[in-house]
Prior knowledge:
By secondary structure, the chain is mainly alpha-helical. It has one domain. The chain is built from 12 helices and no strands.
Amino acid sequence: MPPTQRPIYALALRLLAMVAISVMLLLVKLSGERGIWLPETLFWRQFLPGIALFGWLAARGEIGRLATKRPWIHARRALIGGLGMFLTLGVVQIIPLAEATVLGFTSPIFAVLLAVVLLGEKVGPWRWTAVILGLAGVVIIAGPDRAHIPLIGLATGIGAAFMVALISIQLRDLGRTEEPVSVVFWFSAFCTPAFALVFLRIGVPHHDLAGWAMLAGIGVTGLAAQLLMTAALRYGSVASVIVMDYSQFGWAMLWGWLFFSNVPGAQTWIGAPAIIAAGLIIAWREQVRGSRSGERSPAA
């Protein structure tokens, strides 16, 4: 029996998830400034949630929920997801938090393009308009000033958004047969050894208490975000809760101002609304298309 839909509760859970993600990215940036290698950050980001999830299931006698008949699909998802995580966490160490967050909002645009290429979906004028609007926002934010956003930072941010879009298609496939806890656990199980090999090869630095606290915080906030997002989707649809994702921009601006004295420039203030509007248009059209799932609906 599916859970009762509770839209306001779902929105609150999604909002808390965005707070958790913004804090995680803040800690990633702070840890980078303390000289902690990104591969080590990625290791702890995956190891701690994986161990916590396994321990929770073991305590409940529910290890069987992790059983899967699709290990190679999980491995493929981990390969794509691991690269996506590397780019997503890496970009905040290159450019300001607000700009890194806005570039992440281009993910729905790439999801539309991938749906056309990989799934053969027909896309109508609304979603094509959103794609063009979003890309225009990226061009505005990039601007001619490379000191504002260096080319490597721009490429990393867009690459991260593309990988997130690609992961969403992978998750759609896995979601047909796998529980969310299984997807999260196997992602950690496949990624953790790979990240461990990388950071152990380059050497483990000696951290002080603050450094270890940051690494622990990254793992805890990452797990909290995953659980909150999963819970939000139990009580509300993707189209109804996704609007809260854009609150992350506000948190990113706040953390950037408080911790790094960064204030977004005029380019970001002009380009960000265009990208956010594009994402909202796509979310709206997905909701419309979902409501017509039992009918032959026109391209949107």
